[in-house]
Write a structure and sequence with these properties.
The chain is built from 20 helices and no strands. The chain is mainly alpha-helical. Belongs to the sigma-70 factor family. ECF subfamily.
Amino acid sequence: MNEVDVREAVTRAHHEEWARVVAALTRRFGDLDVAEEAAAEAFATAVERWPADGVPANPGAWLTTTANHKAIDRLRRENKRDDKHKEARLVHDDDPPEPLGAIDDDRLRLIFTCCHPALAMDARLALTLRMVGGLTVPEIARAFLVAESAMGQRITRAKAKIKTARIPYRVPSAEDLPARVTGVLAVLYLVFNEGYLATGPDTDPLRHDLTAEAIRLTRLIRALLPDDGEVAGLLALMLLIEARRAARVSASGELVPLADQDRGTWDTALIAEGHRLVRERLAAAAAGVAPGRYQILAAINAVHTSARDVRDTDWSQVLALYDQLVRLDPSPLIALNRAIAVAELDGPDVALAAVNRLEDRLAGYHAYHATRADLLRRLGRGQESRAAYDKAIELAGNTAETAYLTRRRTQLP
């Protein structure tokens, strides 16, 4: 095996085994710092030894064993395990793990610990990407436009909060699991959204690294909780959006709206997988299982990706799904997106009236002004449309979106 093959093997092992190694060490030693450092040292050792020794038959087992030895060495050096019983646990870790929570899986425990509601959302995001995703601190800092030192402190504080608040390392009980899963999915959706449409002006407009990581982690949750409808719904939603990535930014760097995208460049494999998941959830709904927010959003995206041409879009079905979603989530953002479907069915004047009613709650949101600008343009109200475009451009951070809005504004008569 040549050097390139070994490097690819290490990269693959990092993607597949990082969370498993960190989770196993966290369960054994009860310390996220120890687990993180030992896992990182194990992968660094792999980079050094695998080119000479060869890639082991079971990379995950090799990495876990090596990380365990690294952790034990660290704890002994720091004199943190003087007690004879604890010393024995370091050398002889043969006790069967105690089942904790509704599902006994180390990785799931790690995810629920990192996404615990006692932590602030920004801390949950950072900690999940570091401990579960294996991203480095500089990578996470770049993703969310935060200084590396500040991101490092954020992760350190989050781990300290887990320790001082005695946040349990376990999967929630069966009674608490649905509510806690919702929090985990919210974290993964935020990661995906930042990649789907990056908010900062000094970063790539689309962050494939973040969307890919969010999808990978959601697949992991799906494998661990295969019967959870909202997990399946979120995965389907991500896949159907990610399928359109190649068509979303033009060669000149402008965002390309859904109506103008080259549908021939969409990823048919991702669309097929997303549609299959949506059909599974529709079958469950037919059997009396009410769909949740992510499932309905996935169904809306399934309608869009089913149309070979924008003119074939079943807008009445899209609107019916938004009506169902509004009953679950009466947020102004959902109402704004619903108005876009209304414009296709009832005309831009009806949609504009609905959008205007959202001003008090969305005045600081660029998409509100961009939607108004487009509706006003369609109604021939050029001066008002120009003012709305100006406001949208002022508030938009994404470079591709800003370029698109600027061009649309200059095209007004």
